[in-house]
Automatic annotation (TrEMBL):
Organism: Scytonema hofmannii PCC 7110
GO BP term, example: potassium ion transport
TM region positions: none
Listed InterPro entries: NAD(P)-bd_dom_sf, RCK_C, RCK_C_sf, RCK_N, Trk_Ktr_HKT_K-transport
Pfam families registered for this protein in UniProt: TrkA_C, TrkA_N
RCK C-terminal domain segment(s): 152-231
Name the UniProt record assigns to this protein: Potassium transporter
Length: 231
């Protein structure tokens, strides 16, 4: 799981052990697969029987059902309304997405995460009951743009519009210097969270550890300060 995916999984309630995912497109499949790997019980649904069969064959979910989520009765019969968190992953079919979200909210589900394809779609989803809305394509586009303009940044997680956690390649001028030598907090206003070594990260590394060219480090701070790094 990379840093960018944390934004979505942070929206899920930490006390849950069961999730329902409606829609088995690329986004829905990715959510199902990741939750399933984390050991959660996942019920997946889709109107397309082939997608349901594929999900079961590939074992990316605990259970999968074919149903029309715009039919409230079908959702109730499948037990969707009994879940604490439901992810509506039908982002590319606006009407079906909105009707499904409304059905789930009226069914009494306390927490709904929905995928949107536009700002208008996002507003409509919030109005009919979505508690959290995600834009996977938009977020992927932003990540690509950052990669192209800042190739030394390997991964990024935006905490808010002004602050981020980033994984960056150690700059050449940091090579051979210790963490204490660089004084990242005083010079750049950044806090060092981890440094990679032999493919693994050391959390809260020793201040006398030396940086190595080609390794990576994870820092947290203001975006303006992050941009001051020699990367």
């Amino acid at each position: 799981m990379n840093l960018s995916s944390l934004g979505f999984f942070r929206s899920l309630r930490k006390d849950n052990s069961q999730f329902a995912v409606i829609g088995l497109g690329r986004f829905g499949r990715s959510v199902c697969s990741t939750l399933h790997k984390f050991g959660y019980e996942v019920l997946a649904t889709d109107i397309d029987e082939k997608r349901v069969s594929q999900a079961l064959t590939e074992q990316i979910t605990s259970h999968a059902l074919q149903l029309d989520s715009t039919e409230s009765a079908a959702l109730k019969e499948a037990g969707i309304f009994e879940f604490d968190t439901v992810i509506v992953a039908i982002g590319n079919y606006v009407q079906e997405s909105i009707v499904t979200t409304l059905n789930v909210k009226e069914g009494g589900v306390p927490h709904i995460v929905a995928k949107a394809s536009s700002e208008v779609h996002c507003k409509l989803l919030h109005k009919v009951g979505a508690d959290h809305v995600v834009f996977p394509e938009y977020e992927a586009g932003c990540a690509l743009a950052r990669t192209l303009t800042k190739p030394s940044i390997l991964d990024r997680f935006d905490l808010d519009p002004d602050n981020s956690i980033v994984e960056v390649i150690v700059p050449d001028e940091f090579h051979g210097k210790t963490i204490a030598d660089l004084q990242l907090r005083n010079r750049y206003g950044l806090n060092l969270l981890a440094v990679s070594q032999d493919g693994k990260f050391q959390i809260n590394p020793d201040p006398y550890k030396r940086f190595e060219r080609g390794s990576a480090m994870v820092v947290i701070g203001c975006n303006k300060d992050i941009n001051k790094l020699p990367i």
